[in-house]
Write a structure and sequence with these properties.
The structure is a homodimer. By secondary structure, the first copy, chain A, is an alpha+beta fold. In chain A, 35% of the residues lie in helices and 37% in strands. Chain A has a single domain (2-80), classed as Phosphoribosylformylglycinamidine synthase subunit PurS (Mth169, Chain: A, 2-Layer Sandwich), CATH 3.30.1280.
Chain lengths: 81, 81
Amino acid sequence: MKARVYVSLKSTVLDPQGKTVRSALAGLGYHSVADVRQGKYFEISIEPGVGAEQARTEVETLAQDVLTNPVIETCRVEFDA
Amino acid sequence: MKARVYVSLKSTVLDPQGKTVRSALAGLGYHSVADVRQGKYFEISIEPGVGAEQARTEVETLAQDVLTNPVIETCRVEFDA
Protein backbone atom coordinates (compact mmCIF):
# COMPACT_ATOMS: atom_id res chain seq x y z
CA MET A 1 0.00 0.00 0.00
CA LYS A 2 1.17 3.49 -0.82
CA ALA A 3 0.13 6.94 0.28
CA ARG A 4 0.87 10.27 -1.31
CA VAL A 5 0.96 13.43 0.74
CA TYR A 6 0.88 16.83 -0.97
CA VAL A 7 1.78 19.82 1.18
CA SER A 8 1.16 23.28 -0.22
CA LEU A 9 1.23 26.80 1.15
CA LYS A 10 -2.14 28.32 2.06
CA SER A 11 -3.36 30.69 -0.64
CA THR A 12 -3.01 33.66 1.72
CA VAL A 13 0.70 32.98 2.24
CA LEU A 14 3.25 34.56 -0.12
CA ASP A 15 5.35 32.11 -2.13
CA PRO A 16 8.59 33.78 -3.27
CA GLN A 17 9.97 30.46 -4.55
CA GLY A 18 6.95 30.03 -6.83
CA LYS A 19 7.23 33.65 -8.01
CA THR A 20 10.87 33.04 -8.95
CA VAL A 21 9.95 29.91 -10.92
CA ARG A 22 7.19 31.86 -12.65
CA SER A 23 9.48 34.69 -13.74
CA ALA A 24 12.15 32.22 -14.88
CA LEU A 25 9.51 30.46 -17.02
CA ALA A 26 8.38 33.80 -18.48
CA GLY A 27 12.01 34.58 -19.31
CA LEU A 28 12.26 31.25 -21.14
CA GLY A 29 9.23 32.08 -23.27
CA TYR A 30 6.45 30.22 -21.45
CA HIS A 31 3.86 32.99 -21.51
CA SER A 32 0.75 30.87 -20.77
CA VAL A 33 1.78 30.63 -17.13
CA ALA A 34 -0.06 33.10 -14.89
CA ASP A 35 1.22 31.88 -11.53
CA VAL A 36 3.26 29.10 -9.95
CA ARG A 37 3.06 27.87 -6.38
CA GLN A 38 5.53 25.33 -5.13
CA GLY A 39 4.85 22.63 -2.57
CA LYS A 40 6.22 19.39 -1.23
CA TYR A 41 5.31 15.88 -2.19
CA PHE A 42 5.89 12.72 -0.11
CA GLU A 43 5.45 9.17 -1.36
CA ILE A 44 4.98 6.91 1.66
CA SER A 45 5.18 3.11 1.47
CA ILE A 46 3.35 1.25 4.21
CA GLU A 47 4.79 -1.87 5.92
CA PRO A 48 3.21 -4.99 4.33
CA GLY A 49 1.63 -6.38 7.53
CA VAL A 50 -0.30 -3.22 8.45
CA GLY A 51 -4.08 -3.09 7.87
CA ALA A 52 -5.57 -0.52 5.51
CA GLU A 53 -7.60 1.20 8.23
CA GLN A 54 -4.62 1.57 10.60
CA ALA A 55 -2.35 2.76 7.79
CA ARG A 56 -4.90 5.34 6.71
CA THR A 57 -5.28 6.74 10.25
CA GLU A 58 -1.54 6.80 10.86
CA VAL A 59 -0.67 8.50 7.55
CA GLU A 60 -3.41 11.11 8.00
CA THR A 61 -2.12 11.88 11.51
CA LEU A 62 1.52 12.14 10.50
CA ALA A 63 0.67 14.26 7.44
CA GLN A 64 -1.20 16.76 9.61
CA ASP A 65 1.09 16.72 12.62
CA VAL A 66 4.59 16.18 11.22
CA LEU A 67 4.78 16.93 7.51
CA THR A 68 2.60 20.04 7.57
CA ASN A 69 3.04 23.32 9.39
CA PRO A 70 -0.63 24.13 10.03
CA VAL A 71 0.04 27.85 10.43
CA ILE A 72 1.03 28.32 6.78
CA GLU A 73 0.39 25.03 4.98
CA THR A 74 -2.40 22.64 4.07
CA CYS A 75 -2.06 19.01 3.07
CA ARG A 76 -3.90 16.51 0.93
CA VAL A 77 -3.53 12.74 1.30
CA GLU A 78 -4.23 10.08 -1.35
CA PHE A 79 -4.08 6.32 -0.98
CA ASP A 80 -3.74 3.49 -3.44
CA ALA A 81 -3.63 -0.26 -2.92
CA MET B 1 -7.36 26.38 -15.78
CA LYS B 2 -4.83 24.80 -13.45
CA ALA B 3 -2.12 22.24 -13.88
CA ARG B 4 -0.30 20.24 -11.25
CA VAL B 5 3.20 18.96 -11.84
CA TYR B 6 4.67 16.29 -9.56
CA VAL B 7 8.40 15.72 -9.83
CA SER B 8 9.89 12.71 -8.07
CA LEU B 9 13.25 10.99 -8.04
CA LYS B 10 13.57 7.87 -10.19
CA SER B 11 13.27 4.72 -8.09
CA THR B 12 16.91 3.83 -8.84
CA VAL B 13 18.16 7.10 -7.33
CA LEU B 14 18.95 7.26 -3.62
CA ASP B 15 16.86 9.73 -1.60
CA PRO B 16 18.68 10.69 1.62
CA GLN B 17 16.08 13.39 2.40
CA GLY B 18 13.30 10.78 2.30
CA LYS B 19 15.38 8.39 4.44
CA THR B 20 15.81 11.13 7.05
CA VAL B 21 12.07 11.82 7.12
CA ARG B 22 11.43 8.09 7.46
CA SER B 23 13.75 7.68 10.44
CA ALA B 24 12.35 10.82 12.09
CA LEU B 25 8.84 9.36 11.71
CA ALA B 26 9.99 6.02 13.19
CA GLY B 27 11.50 7.94 16.12
CA LEU B 28 8.14 9.64 16.68
CA GLY B 29 6.35 6.29 16.85
CA TYR B 30 4.96 5.97 13.32
CA HIS B 31 5.93 2.35 12.72
CA SER B 32 3.60 1.62 9.77
CA VAL B 33 5.89 3.60 7.47
CA ALA B 34 8.25 1.41 5.44
CA ASP B 35 9.76 4.08 3.22
CA VAL B 36 9.43 7.76 2.33
CA ARG B 37 10.48 9.43 -0.89
CA GLN B 38 10.31 13.18 -1.22
CA GLY B 39 9.52 15.10 -4.37
CA LYS B 40 8.46 18.51 -5.58
CA TYR B 41 5.00 19.74 -6.41
CA PHE B 42 4.11 22.73 -8.61
CA GLU B 43 0.65 24.24 -8.95
CA ILE B 44 0.53 26.19 -12.20
CA SER B 45 -2.26 28.64 -13.05
CA ILE B 46 -2.77 29.27 -16.75
CA GLU B 47 -3.51 32.75 -18.18
CA PRO B 48 -7.29 33.07 -18.77
CA GLY B 49 -7.11 33.71 -22.55
CA VAL B 50 -5.05 30.63 -23.39
CA GLY B 51 -6.73 27.62 -25.07
CA ALA B 52 -6.77 24.24 -23.33
CA GLU B 53 -4.76 22.52 -26.05
CA GLN B 54 -2.01 25.16 -26.09
CA ALA B 55 -1.84 25.25 -22.28
CA ARG B 56 -1.56 21.47 -22.13
CA THR B 57 1.30 21.38 -24.65
CA GLU B 58 3.14 24.25 -22.99
CA VAL B 59 2.85 22.85 -19.46
CA GLU B 60 3.93 19.38 -20.58
CA THR B 61 6.97 20.87 -22.31
CA LEU B 62 8.00 23.06 -19.40
CA ALA B 63 7.47 20.22 -16.91
CA GLN B 64 9.80 17.94 -18.89
CA ASP B 65 12.36 20.54 -19.92
CA VAL B 66 12.54 22.99 -17.03
CA LEU B 67 11.05 21.58 -13.84
CA THR B 68 12.50 18.08 -14.19
CA ASN B 69 16.09 16.92 -14.38
CA PRO B 70 15.61 13.93 -16.71
CA VAL B 71 18.80 12.23 -15.54
CA ILE B 72 17.47 11.57 -12.03
CA GLU B 73 13.81 12.62 -11.98
CA THR B 74 10.47 11.80 -13.57
CA CYS B 75 7.40 14.00 -13.69
CA ARG B 76 3.65 13.57 -13.82
CA VAL B 77 1.27 16.28 -15.00
CA GLU B 78 -2.43 16.64 -14.16
CA PHE B 79 -4.91 19.19 -15.47
CA ASP B 80 -8.21 20.46 -14.22
CA ALA B 81 -10.60 23.03 -15.65
